[in-house]
Amino acid sequence: MKDIKIKQIFHIVFAVAVTGLFLRMFVVDTFEVKGDSMAPAILKGDYVFIDKASHRFKRGDYIFNRQDIIVAKARRQSGQIIKRIIGLPGDRLEITNNGNGILIKKDRKDEGEPIKEDYISNPAVSIPVVGLGAIKLDPKEYYVLGDNRYFSVDSRELGPVDEWDIEGRVFLIFRPSSFSFKTP
Asked: Taking the model in full, what pTM does it have?
């Protein structure tokens, strides 16, 4: 009788462990933010919850949207980065340091339309142009920037992020300092 209960407990623990591992690998993941590149939206020490599954089933022109916060592997850096999507596949982007911010252009001669960045307190302040200042994105490439542009290593230096290197979209932020949750 005692052996049967131990066996049942083992099966339950095993099933819970396998289910947890499956969920962590394919559905939801968490990650502690190590830097200040996404401040003030996401601070160092915050925990983010990543939806790893829904984009796999999404159909349409773009799997991710402009202004989504994502976690990805960068081409020229080991580890994960957390950034905001600014440029979508096929976009022609220009980063200016004359107060216009980031422009989306239809072609080389187009003046461009500035991106509205409500999440940045003063988007008209000049953005440091480091590395790539103008780019035409290939299909399946996304241009990502940190909200804290002066302290962010992002697509300006690392280049665009490939769609298959995006691990998922941030859907929830936990701030341990205030023990609060918020959505991006």
From this structure: 0.83
